[in-house]
Amino acid sequence: MLINIAKPSDLTEADVTPESIYLSRRRFMGGVVGLGAGLALSNPTHANADYSDVPQGDSPAWLKEKISGTEWRAITPDDPDKDKIAPYDDASNYNNFYEYGTGKTDPARRAGSLRTEPWSVVIDGEVNN
Quick one: CA torsion of 64, 34, 52, 68, rounded to 10 degrees? Predict the structure, then answer.
């Protein structure tokens, strides 16, 4: 039997940086801090406005007040046909947790039957020592 052992230098499915961003990575890294803060505090209504398949939401008033003076910039791929944005349903339902099935869409489809309340958590053993 032939066993293929991947080298640490081999690429994986997690290596999904679009080529256009890789080629302009210095510009990209320069905007990461501001973009990260902006995304963390972003208003979902503005963030989702261009995507008709994304449910609209509203931010709390305190957040709107804090980010009202923020200047927003979008990072768009140089070649939109090559680096397409995944549809919202695909991006929000894709997962690798197989508690509800072995298919990529099984957990999202079947998790509606999961009862999350009432749940109780007991922390015992040597945690208090």
Answer: 20
